[in-house]
Amino acid sequence: MTKKSLNYLFSALLLSVFLNAQAGAETSIVKYIEVDGVIQPASSRYIQRALDEAIASDAEAFLIFLDTPGGLMESMRDIIKSILVSDVPVIVYVAPSGSRAGSAGVFITLSAHIAAMAPGTNIGAAHPVSMGMGQQDDTTGVMEDKILNDAVAFIRTIAEQKGRNANWAESAVRESASITETEALQKNVIDLIAPSTDSLFAMLDGWEVDMPDGPRILSFENVIPEEIPMTWRDQILNIISDPNIAYVLMLLGIYGLFFELYNPGAVVPGVIGGICLILAFFAFQTLPVNITGLLLILLAIILFILEIKVTSYGVLSIGGAISLILGSVMLIESPIPGLRISWGVILPGALATVAFFLVAIALSVKAQKRKPTTGAEGMTGETGVSIDEIAPHGSVKIRGEIWQAKTKKDAISATTPIVVISVDKMVLIVEEAPDQE
Q1: What is the rounded CA–CA span in Å between residue 317 and residue 313?
Q2: By the number of CB atoms within 10 A of the CB, which of 103, 198, 202, 275 ranks highest?
């Protein structure tokens, strides 16, 4: 055997050993999702569904890329309940750089089995936000203290259970304290800082976590990340839960129902309007809606409709416009920007609504003043020509139709221009038309 052949054989043996080693190496599946935005029922449903899928697939871990300004207490609690009883280790990674874990995001991060942050991120400002129509109106005095103390107790028990800084966690709720990722690591709020996903997996390889069934060692030597995407149902729920979308759906619903009432039998506007209103009110159930704002919007619609029937010289329309704008501003009250209606949506929406009703009112008034075209009122004033002599009875031709006619004055000869002055049952009362110069 030549030297060249021996080299080929040795290379083949090395390749075979390498491939066998790779084939025998165990791989770890990590399921992951990206949560970017407000924590609300749609995101809560998505996180819980994805976690259930990770458990069912026996994943090594479940990773949440988190970037949120906060969200609703009830949705946040549902997420944390699922994390605390999970059979799969949950990693919350505040990333990429520039992301934050604010408000509800603090609770979720502290509840994770492993809490990590990327450089250039921050965590904190966890003051509680309630959910439900009118509930935020009660968060004063005793009720506010109850909600605050409940949130403090909840975040302390989470932090203590996970061995994290409970005192800072309390300050994040009571004082809206916020810190950088470096401070969070120093204060024992998080477990590590990782600049990238690869470095995160490398740092967590061999990490021990406490699970409900006892300690578990993570193995990320050959990790395969698999994303769990949102289903179309989750996507729709996430879209309509946006306060701006819910507000627009409400306005479209009002337009559609008004069109249907203004023009009965049109069907399509009523169907579309009904669907939009149902979706809007479904979204309002998931948002901190102020009942006063909603009532002001309904009052605005009533004032616009009354403008058609009542001569107010524009006073009702002006009142309706003011009520609509105030109601829109007050409709959803929250310290979290993602849970408020944008002025860029309120102003165009209010102006479009005012313009819509003003046009509808103008068309209605014009229709009321229009001369009737049917019945006795519609024939009065019409002109035509006599077919035969009317003395006092005869026939006339009007609009291409032949009518029985009668004159109460002098006889009218045939082919003479006539004008209808009144209608007696089915007989037209006519007289000779004045000469047109």
Answers
A1: 9
A2: 103
Backbone angle region of 222, left / alpha / beta, with phi > 0 → left and psi within -120 to 50 → alpha:
beta
Please return the burial class of 395, using the count of CB atoms within 10 Å of its CB with bins 0-12, 13-18 and 19+: middle
Strand 192-193 and strand 114-117: pairing? Answer: parallel
Residues in the chain: 437
Query: Does a cis peptide bond (omega within 30 degrees of 0) precede residue 96?
Result: yes
Please state the separation of Cα 319 from the chain's center in Å: 28
Q: What is the pLDDT of residue 70?
A: 86
Which DSSP state fits 371? Answer: P
Q: 303 and 316 in contact (C-beta within 8 Å)?
A: yes
Distance CA 42, CA 21 (A): 44
Residue 304 CA, chain-centre distance (Å), reads 26
Please tell me the distance from the alpha carbon of residue 281 to that of residue 290, in angstroms, as a whole number: 13
Q: pTM for the full model?
A: 0.68
- Tokens read off for 351: 């102006």
pLDDT in tens, 45-104: 999 999 999 999 999 999 999 999 888 888 899 999 999 999 999 999 999 999 999 989
- What one-character-per-residue DSSP string does 239-272 give? HHTSHHHHHHHHHHHHHHHHHHHHSTT--HHHHH
Residues forming a β-bridge with 193? 117
d(CA 303, CA 316): 6
Q: What is the pLDDT of residues 364-422, one digit of tens each?
A: 666 555 555 555 566 777 888 888 888 888 888 887 788 888 888 878 888 888 888 88
In order of start, what are the domains of the chain with their CATH numbers? 23-233 (3.90.226.10), 242-369 (no CATH), 375-432 (2.40.50.140)
Q: What is the pLDDT of residues 318-358, one digit of tens each?
A: 788 888 888 888 887 666 666 678 878 888 887 887 777 77
Does the N-terminal peptide bond of residue 392 adopt cis geometry, omega within 30 degrees of 0? yes
> Is 187 strand, coil or helix?
coil
Alpha helix locations (H) across 88-210?
104-111, 141-161, 166-174, 181-186, 197-204
Counting Cβ atoms within 10 Å, is residue 5 exposed (0-12), middle (13-18) or buried (19+)? Answer: exposed
Q: What does the pLDDT read at residue 434? A: 79
Question: CA-CA distances (angstroms) from residue 196 to 6, 8, 61, 169, 200?
Answer: 44, 40, 17, 26, 6
